[in-house]
Amino acid sequence: MKRKNKKKILKKDHTEVTLEILVENIPNALTFGISDPYYEFKYQGKVLYRSERMKDCLSCQWMKQTFQIPNKCFMQKIQLRVGCEEVDDGDDILVEFEMSFPFRRTAYYQDERHEDAARLYVVNCEIHTSLSVQCFPGPTGWFS
What we know:
CATH architecture: Sandwich
CATH superfamily: C2 domain
Helix content: under 10%
Number of strands: 8
Structural class: mainly beta
Number of domains: 1
CATH class: Mainly Beta
CATH topology: Immunoglobulin-like
Shape: globular
Number of helices: 0
Oligomer: single chain
Distance between the termini: 56 Å
Largest sheet: 4 strands, antiparallel
Strand order of the largest sheet: 4-1-8-7
Order of helices and strands: EEEEEEEE
């Protein structure tokens, strides 16, 4: 039985983002073994997206992930949190970064003063939107 390709529907007032990130020097939350980290984006306390877990990894590069972000997040601070589900206590967040949307291809540091602090690299970021812009002619024509 063949699966029909369903076209992804862009939610109203949302922007679709395809993102590839690398996080280095993730702290290990486990006494025995190595953490299986995931990342999530949070805005005003709400989780916008959560990635799959990476097995036994403290410097992880997640391949391109596509998800939707509300347009109200534009030019706002968004938290990227790296966590581990295997931790017994309630707080499974290992490291947090704060970044603005749209995400720039750059490096973010947990603490620049420490050489072994966690680092986040935005390897690739593509933004797909359904926003429309209305243009009006300027004083010297359409392209002033």
